[in-house]
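Q: Could you predict the 3D structure of Nitrobenzoate reductase?
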Amino acid sequence: MNRLSQPPMSPPLLAQAVDWAITSRRSIRAFLPDPVAHEDVVGILDVARFCATGVNMQPWRVHVVTGDMKLRLSNAIADIDNNPAYADTLLDPYEYYPREWVTPYLDRKKKVGWELYGLLGIAKGDKQRMHEQHGRNYRFFDAPVGLLFTIDRVLQQGSLLDYGMFLQSVMVAARARGLHTCPQAAFLKYHHVIAEVLGIPDEHMLVCGMSLGYADDSSVENDLVTEREAVSTFTTFHHNNKETRP
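A: Sure. Here are the predicted structure tokens for Nitrobenzoate reductase:
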């Protein structure tokens, strides 16, 4: 792969293609059973490895699960997830979400949650159906490919920033191949069982999981399209001692 090669199309078409791949990425929660070619999985990771990384540290480690191994992992997690007395005692390997939710983050979290449950017809307070829906995470939403991402525990927050760019690159490269993804922090709680099943060494920490496959467009949950704030709400331009909004 020649990183200094010329673009494969004109600048306007290239911008459209890249913008489409980024903006069409969304979390898919129902996948078709159609297999994903091994070459496509390798190709996605082969592209993503060129994301930015401080002093070229490249902190990512990827575990790809398919077939019987994916089923074995899903069953091992489900056994624990369906035992709340035990599952509720488990802790994530790091704090992904804030300890205290405040506006506007809490509002956005609630909105997307109730929009998803509304599409699925899950009423407020229906804890069993909520649990069942959440448990679909551990089946990778029926995607044929599951990805588990780990990082060396000696690394610090800067490497997690690099990791975020790697994950985004994976998801964008997947869109370029007609595939969809769902990044999943839900797996964090079960990092010990994941490490045991996959033989992940103690010095590596789970970062997140991800489902990869072809979206099932007939599933109502995939109608969910989240809203995003306008550039003007989060950007301030500083110029000539003045602050302006777009």
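Q: Anything worth pointing out?
A: The chain has nine helices and six strands.
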